[in-house]
Amino acid sequence: MTTGKIIPLKRFGQNYLTDKNIVRKIINEFSPAYNNVVIEIGPGKGALTEFLVQRLNKLYAVEIDKRVVDDLKNKYKNIEVINSDFLKLDTANFAEGKNKIRIIGNIPYNITSPIIFKLINQREIISDAVLTIQYEVARRITAKPNSKDYGILSVLLNFFSKAKFCFRVSANAFRPKPKVDSAVIHLFFDKEIPPDISPKLFIQTVKAAFGNRRKTLRNSLANSQFHNIKFDKLNFDITRRAESLTTEEFIFLTRFIAANAEKTF
């Protein structure tokens, strides 16, 4: 089968990147080195793959669509194509000694958050990730407190990584043309996490705080799994809304919950 005849499938959220200038900008941002351990998510017809294989000893390409697997294998010699769902893949199998994994991909809009949470959970073996995602999601990821875009992803990615908004990508760069623009972000997972903070509890705290976005922090927490904790003892104003809290204040809130919870979360 020839990839040129393949029609993108809606069920896989496929929009093939066709603008070579955008492809080059993405590759330049990623800046792969020969011995890097790189996983490409959803190579499709190989827009990024074509440039990646020229600069890598070997590329791991995770592709859920069986229709393009043989073409990718035949076209590129230094590639290992894994016909799988990236969300079900154990990325730890690809780590090579001290060389952490690097991730790149034009990812489906409908599974952006699950992919990002997977990267967060496996951040100890992942160096960084360059992802092409929906523009509005990219804005949320890099948003600052007290803005309409600031939310769960903003806080979590600021806590677990350094998030860089690289550039916006017009819908015209894809086929079929999506209804919204995209953006390229670069996530760096080299941030040190406070040793006394449970990553799981931090995530639970942030999600609880944003559980009722239009309500105060007091009301959101009262409707959460932490409802038995007396937050009146907290040393800042809980009549504020979650979107006004900085990452440092969420860390403080997590420590308070850990110290005052009747059970371990």
Descriptive tags:
single chain, 265 residues, alpha/beta, Rossmann fold, Helicase, Ruva Protein, domain 3, 2 domains, 7-stranded mixed beta sheet, two-stranded antiparallel sheet, 9 strands, elongated
Topology:
Elements: E1 16-17, H1 20-30, E2 37-41, H2 49-55, E3 59-62, H3 66-75, E4 79-82, E5 101-106, H4 112-121, E6 126-134, H5 135-141, H6 152-160, E7 162-169, E8 174-175, E9 182-188, H7 199-209, H8 217-222, H9 247-260
How is this structure best described in words?
- It is a single chain.
- The protein has 265 residues and is α/β, with parallel strands linked by helices.
- The protein has two domains: 3-188, Rossmann fold, CATH 3.40.50.150; 199-260, Helicase, Ruva Protein, domain 3 (Orthogonal Bundle).
- Helix content is 32%, strand content 18%.
- It has nine helices and nine strands.
- It has helices at 20-30, 49-55, 66-75, 112-121, 135-141, 152-160, 199-209, 217-222, 247-260; strands at residues 16-17, 37-41, 59-62, 79-82, 101-106, 126-134, 162-169, 174-175, 182-188.
- A seven-stranded mixed β-sheet has the order 4-3-2-5-6-9-7, sandwiched between helices.
- Helix 7 crosses helix 9.
| Class based on secondary structure composition and strand pairing | alpha/beta
Helix/strand order, N-terminal first? EHEHEHEEHEHHEEEHHH
Placed side by side, the strands forming the largest sheet appear as: 4-3-2-5-6-9-7
Number of strands: 9
- Which term fits the overall shape? elongated
Instruction: Give the CA-CA distance, first to last residue.
Output: 51 Å
Count of individual helical segments? 9
CATH topology of the largest domain: Rossmann fold
Major sheet description = 7 strands, mixed
CATH architecture of the largest domain: 3-Layer(aba) Sandwich
Could you name the ranges where pLDDT drops below 50 across 5 or more consecutive residues? none
Class of the largest domain, according to the CATH hierarchy? Alpha Beta
CATH homologous superfamily name of the largest domain? Vaccinia Virus protein VP39
Mean pLDDT: 92
Residue share in helix: 25-40%
